[in-house]
Design brief:
Chain B: Pfam families: BPD_transp_1. The complex is a heterodimer of chains A (239) and B (297). Chain A has 9 helices and 10 strands. In chain A, the strands form 2 sheets. A 6-stranded mixed sheet of chain A has the order 6-7-8-3-9-10, with helices on both faces. Chain A has a 4-stranded antiparallel sheet with strand order 2-1-4-5, with helices on one face. In chain B, 79% of the residues lie in helices and 0% in strands. Chain B is mainly α. The chains are: A alpha/beta (239), B mainly alpha (297).
Amino acid sequence: MHIDIDDISKEFGTTAALTPVSLSIPSGALVALLGPSGSGKTTLLRILGGLEFPTSGRVLFNGQDATGLTVQQRRAGFVFQSYALFRHMTVFDNIAYGLRARPRKERPPKAEIARRVNKLLELIQLPQIGDRYPSQLSGGQRQRVALARALAIEPRMMLLDEPFGALDAKVRKELRQGLRDIHDETGLTTIFVTHDQEEAMELADLVVVMSMGRIEQIGRPQDIREKPATEFVRDFITT
Amino acid sequence: MSDATIPQQGARANNPARFRRANDESPLARAILILLAVGGLGILVFAPLAAVFTEALKQGWAAAVASLGSRDAQSAIRLTLTITAIAVPLNAAFGIAAAWFITKFDFRGKAFLITLIDLPFSVSPVVAGLCIVLLFGANSALGGWLVASGYPIVFAIPGIVLATVFVTFPFVARELIPVMIEQGRAEEEAALTLGASGWRTFLTVTLPNIRWALLYGTLLCTARAMGEFGAVAVVSGKIRGQTATMPITIEMLYNEYLSVAAFSMAALLTGFALITLTLKTALELRHADQLAATRRH
């Protein structure tokens, strides 16, 4: 899905989290929102997912105004920073949650839900863990379950908030490839937030560098590396 | 302190391989602490409990049971159970609503609202009772109208329910607020992004996550609701057989030197409280695995 962000701004009380920003994301792209903490990248992601509403500006999905759509109507697969798995449910129930929450006439039958959940467990290469609880999983396994849970709703896009933030370096490298593979397989427009420039450069097709609620530069990783547009970008990618 | 270190040094000389762990107390300090804890518990908890039951059974089981079988006693027991059955679900609902509001939304005056929830803990129950009399008594405009319409609040069951609800209001909310703050909003947000409605999110995510705190708060609330005296004493009018709850009946019987009857009723009230506690422990033991799973991972 093609996403347009049209002059979006967001204020929390008197502090501006986003000064008007505009951004066009082509369908099927893997995009990184890169910036230090407080740069507004998570706010922008939450606005796309419908968890926050902009103070002004519009969001367009495939050219149609989606600004007023509720979080449920957006059908965005959201992966939270600490995964937010339902701790009282098994992995199977976590992944099935979105399908079971559908209105009765759109809800797949039980056997179909089980089939889809098992397929997703295979996609994330953890076919045996359906009966476990989130507390019995490692950090990397939780992240992959969160990914499967978000994919289960057949999302129109994937939004990931620091998807590798809570993991150690080795697991992080493995899962980066995992995310790339899943993106390539599903072809979903995917946007992830990160403060790690190496991660952004290595994984994304398109990197959006943000600072203080503004977009500093939009470009392919090598363009940003070779031709940083501002002093901030130069500093940020060399450190 | 020097007394405590001398035997320790002796022990070390005999067995140099044994060292004291950093958080170990000396044997003397340990003995004193245990003595204080056991002694305090014995004097403050076990002795009164034993005394209630001994006094009740002073003239044997038959006398105790007979006193509980009297019409007034039966009416008091029924009244207390009815009031509890009304007040506890109300407070569970209010408590969940208040905790939800406070922990899931940001708004001005939040700190003030939290203080307000604690108010019933700091205000004397007698004062609370008096406020209800002032507001709904026959001498007030509202109360006069209610009495004239045939719905008296004061000296009737609605007043007792109001007083009980007021006094036991904080129990559920106070248990839930810290748990819900600690759990944050992420799981609810996740449920919403997966397409669940607000109500479904509450039923399938919020409620299961707070169920143990809710149960604990409800049980405390139940125990306190059954035992409430001060506020109810003011609003009930203590009409025997009509508005006298168990605690009030106990006081009246005791003042009339009917000690077997008074203590039998007290023993029964204690029994109710012990049942709630046993229930809680049993549930905790039975669902230990879920309990572990729902704690922080």
